[in-house]
Amino acid sequence: MNILYIATVSPPVTGQTIASNILLDYLVLSQNVEVIDLSLASTNDGRFTWTRAFEVLKILYLVHNGVHKCDFVYLTISESVAGNLKDLLIYLVCRKKLDKFYIQLHGGSLKREVFDRHPLLMRLNKLALKKVAGIFISGVSHKSIFFPMIEDSKLHIVGNFAQDYLFLDEQCIRKKFLKTRPLKIVYISGMTSGKGYLFLLNAYKALSDNLRNMLEIDFAGKFDTDEEEIKFNQEIEGYSQLRYHGVVDDESKRQLFAAAHVFCLPTNFLEGQPISILEAYASGCVVLTTGQPGILDIFSDGVNGYEISKNDHLSIKNLMEKLIEVSDNLIDIALNNSRTATANYRTDAFSRGVSNIMLPSSD
């Protein structure tokens, strides 16, 4: 089969680029794949720029040239207004192949940010989406994003994954929980305000001196600006238990997760199904996170960790105090998360899940 693969596959490394690359690596083993990299036309905030407009035109030109030669089209869609306009133009260019056109949504904010705020865009999307072959979503909670725009039979749930190199065996997990003083917490995600890293920092600062000495927190991820990075480093200066590692490579990320007892993601975003949470499961970590719909597809309070309140550093502070108190019992949650990830969240399951629906005879 010939597949036109339209996705963000280049740096920076995000959950979406990881997923796109994992699926691409699987498909090229058995299919002829032409790749169009959407990172050429992406911005962090989805704003319009003339440079971005020019890059979109280049992408549309490549799509126009590739669609006539392909059997199927695969597209990862955007959740910004500008990105959605680009997606609509791609649907238009591929209008004769929409019955062989599959899209994948990795986030959870498309309805709120685009459909609910811009009725005209919602109507245009409905016209296109009712003709596509199928839509891949990561969990049940995201069905409502497309209701009633598309029939339920075209919505396919394919869960996310943790990469194989992050899985720890049970012996390693048990070993790291033999010592929970200090209790090690890790935050690995974008260093943007919406992801909540400052709430984690302020929660730590709100602890008593004695309890702060019982914790260590490692932060890793990319800041949007140099100024924000400088300010954060100034904020943690003088706290020997706090460390910022910058943007980490695979090996550094593996080491951070492998050493951590707890992973914290205090996000305010309407998340998809955060790969970072599944990576924490694979690494045998207890998870602290907010109750966003996409997260609740894979996370249960008291089972996989503890739910924290959005925009509330005191909620995190209170849970830190609880974690210190019950640290000897956290191993049970960590092992449960590891077993859950092993059974349900492997890269092969993700790739086969998409491929077997898009290309039923390929497996």
Task: Walk me through what this model shows.
With 363 residues, this protein is of the alpha/beta class. It has two domains: 2-161 and 346-358, Rossmann fold; 164-344, 3-Layer(aba) Sandwich (Rossmann fold), CATH 3.40.50. Helices cover 44% and strands 15% of the residues. It has 16 helices and twelve strands. It has helices at 15-27, 50-67, 81-93, 110-115, 119-129, 143-146, 170-176, 197-206, 209-212, 226-236, 250-259, 275-282, 293-296, 313-325, 330-344, 347-358; strands spanning 2-7, 32-37, 72-76, 101-104, 134-137, 155-157, 183-188, 215-220, 242-244, 262-265, 286-290, 305-308. It has a six-stranded parallel β-sheet, sandwiched between helices. β1 (2-7), α1 (15-27) and β2 form a beta-alpha-beta unit. It is globular and about 65 Å long. It starts with a strand and ends in a 5-residue tail after the last helix. The model has no long low-confidence stretch (mean pLDDT 94).
Question: In brief, what are we looking at here?
Answer:
Helices cover 44% and strands 15% of the residues. The chain has 363 residues and is of the alpha/beta class. The two termini are 12 Å apart.
Tertiary shape:
globular
Q: What would CATH call the homologous superfamily of the largest domain? A: Glycogen Phosphorylase B
How far apart lie the N and C ends? 12 Å
Low-confidence spans: none
Count of discrete structural domains: 2
Give the total of beta strands: 12
The main pleated sheet reads as: 6 strands, parallel
